[in-house]
Automatic annotation (TrEMBL):
Region (Disordered): 318-337
Segments forming domain Kinesin motor: 1-261
PROSITE patterns in UniProt: KINESIN_MOTOR_1 (PS00411), KINESIN_MOTOR_2 (PS50067)
Gene3D superfamilies: Kinesin motor domain (3.40.850.10)
GO cellular component, one term: microtubule associated complex
GO MF, one example: microtubule binding
Keyword annotations from UniProtKB, A to Z: ATP-binding, Coiled coil, Cytoplasm, Cytoskeleton, Microtubule, Motor protein, Nucleotide-binding
Membership in a protein family: Belongs to the TRAFAC class myosin-kinesin ATPase superfamily. Kinesin family.
GO aspect biological process, one term: mitotic spindle organization
Location of this chain's protein in the cell: Cytoplasm, Cytoskeleton
Protein name from the UniProt record: Kinesin-like protein
Tagged with keyword Cytoplasm: yes
Residues that hold ATP according to the record: G26, Q27, T28, G29, S30, G31, K32, T33
């Protein structure tokens, strides 16, 4: 249903400069990670791939259909114990901080990798997924206790016209289990993780004028996705087991409340100076990546033939030497006279 009814319009809007968010909500063991496909392996066949790999593949396949020059950067982070960790960085244990610049939420130091194909994105997804934090609960011996957010950032430039650059963010979110504390026997830090998810629906459930985005790192990062500048889609994952009936009802109640959240996605146009700077940064990153892989990646910058380089160097040296000798000969002639 998702691929047939929502894929076309959803992806079309992303490629035209509108933000989007997809997140899976539900108790531990309800199939969130499997449905999203954020814990893929090389053995997964295309027919059983989750939504995220399918979206990434379709994004790149649709890009040639539009008259834009696209650049894509990908980041992958997790929120564990209210700490933000870079799943694509060298030091995953390092905790990153949130900053707000020009009313935009940013994470200084977060790795953003330039990609040119869906295979590169899926490789990063696979590498990052292996670094996610897991812990044992009463409902799952190996439960993902962190919220994982994969974010492709897309810039669409109309040829050389940097004044008409469109930007879009696609948040793909795999949330930690939503179950109540008694159900999982979670304690301490894991209790704190389970509580922060309920901040997502506080505004509509309690009719507050103040939106508590700052109450947790998750809601702060997803501020645009919750009542802001984004087209947001929620997947409610439930278990068919009778023993999980109460948790299933809680998930459905949350999904019903989430339907009341009204977002206002707008077209995102980049500042011309920022767009040009971003383009140059992407170009530098691409050149650095190619240099790291060897000079064979630069057909236009391949080394010149030795027969061309040596004569130029020899001619210059010979000319300089000849000039020096002539000067010395001239000086000797004047001294003798």
């Amino acid at each position: 249903m998702f691929t047939k009814r929502l894929h076309f319009q959803w992806l079309k809007n992303i490629l035209k400069g509108y933000n989007a968010t997809l997140f899976a909500y539900g108790q531990t063991g309800s199939g969130k990670t499997y449905t999203m496909g954020t814990c893929i392996s090389e053995s997964v066949v295309e027919e059983s791939a989750g939504i995220v790999p399918r979206i990434i593949k379709d994004l790149f396949e649709r890009m040639p259909n539009y008259e834009y020059e696209y650049t894509v950067k990908v980041s992958f982070l997790e929120i564990y114990k209210e700490d933000i960790h870079d799943l694509l960085g060298e030091d995953v244990s390092a905790s990153l901080q949130i900053r707000e610049e020009n009313q935009l939420v940013k994470i200084p130091g977060l790795t953003e990798t330039v990609v040119t194909s869906p295979e590169e994105v899926l490789y990063l997804l696979h590498c990052g997924s292996t670094k996610r934090s897991v812990a044992s609960t009463a409902m799952n011996l190996k439960s993902s206790r962190s919220h994982a957010i994969l974010t492709p950032k897309i810039a669409a430039m109309d040829g050389e016209n940097t004044e008409d650059t469109l930007t879009a963010k696609l948040h793909l979110v795999d949330l930690a289990g939503s179950e109540r504390i008694k159900k999982t026997h979670a304690e301490g830090d894991r209790l704190k993780e389970g509580m922060c998810i309920f901040a997502l629906c506080e505004r509509d459930a309690k009719k507050r004028s103040h939106i508590p985005y700052r109450d947790s790192r998750l809601t702060r990062l997803l501020q645009d996705s919750l009542g802001g500048n984004s087209a947001t889609l929620m997947l409610a994952c439930v278990s068919p087991a009778d023993i999980n009936m109460e948790e299933t009802l809680n998930t459905l109640r949350y999904a019903d409340r989430a339907r009341l959240i009204k977002n206002k996605p707008i077209l995102n146009r980049a500042d011309p100076k920022d767009a040009e700077l971003a383009k140059l940064r992407v170009l530098v990153a691409q050149l650095q990546a190619r240099l790291a892989n060897g000079s064979s990646c630069f057909p236009l910058l391949s080394p010149c033939p030795k027969t061309i380089i040596k004569p130029l160097s020899t001619t210059t040296t010979t000319t300089t030497t000849t000039t020096t000798i002539n000067n010395n000969s001239t000086n000797s002639h004047f001294l003798q006279n």
